[in-house]
Amino acid sequence: MKNIAVFASHGGSDLQAIIDGCRAGKIPARVCAVISNNSNSRALERAKNEGIPAVHLSAKTTPDSLDEITLQTLQAHNTDIVLLAGYLKKIPATVLKTYENRIFNIHPSLLPKYGGKGMFGINVHAAVLVAGDTETGITIHRVTAEYDEGDILAQRKVPVHADDTPEILAARVLEQEHIFLVEFLAEILAVA
């Protein structure tokens, strides 16, 4: 069975979808650790509630050794793949090198549209509406040293409705994100 480490900064609803997918046997893996840069993240609470190691790592907690401690944490939990699920920080270079082609991010737009620094959460959905797009979606891509620039591995389209607000659109995308993420992980882990 493969081990997935999940990085999350806030609510952790994607994390919960992964945990539930593993428990239901849809994803042939287990979540081995959850790492957050935010000590108050709901993701850490969700992990603790499930008996999953929950680790707060940030420049505040380990200013001089964040890269090294992040890598050590992943290795201590026998991590096979890393998934960024609403994680708002760059991944340390040592982790990128060690887990090359095994770090994935889920992003709430059809990249390359609406990616990059500052393009997360409600900001993405507001930009989609301002642009007048008729569809948006979800992208899963490999993680590189630059935000949202890694190889695109999978996308799912979500319609934009004329009466959408950023919040309504965000909820519709998130609902599909949970389903899509479980399907993607099931597929890549079935051949790994």
Present the secondary structure layout.
Elements: E1 2-7, H1 13-23, E2 29-36, H2 42-49, E3 54-56, H3 66-76, E4 81-84, H4 93-98, E5 103-107, H5 121-131, E6 135-142, E7 152-159, H6 166-190
Q: Care to give the gist of this entry?
A:
The protein is α/β, with parallel strands linked by helices. The chain has helices at residues 13-23, 42-49, 66-76, 93-98, 121-131, 166-190; strands at residues 2-7, 29-36, 54-56, 81-84, 103-107, 135-142, 152-159.
Low-confidence stretches: none
Over all CA atoms, what is the radius of gyration?
Answer: 16 Å
- What integer is the average pLDDT? 96
SS strand fraction: 15-25%
| SS content category | alpha/beta
Beta strands, count: 7
Counted by DSSP, the helix tally is: 6
The global form is globular
Largest sheet: 7 strands, mixed
Order of helices and strands: EHEHEHEHEHEEH
Strand order across the largest sheet: 3-2-1-4-5-6-7
Distance between the termini: 10 Å
Q: Helicity range of the residues?
A: 25-40%
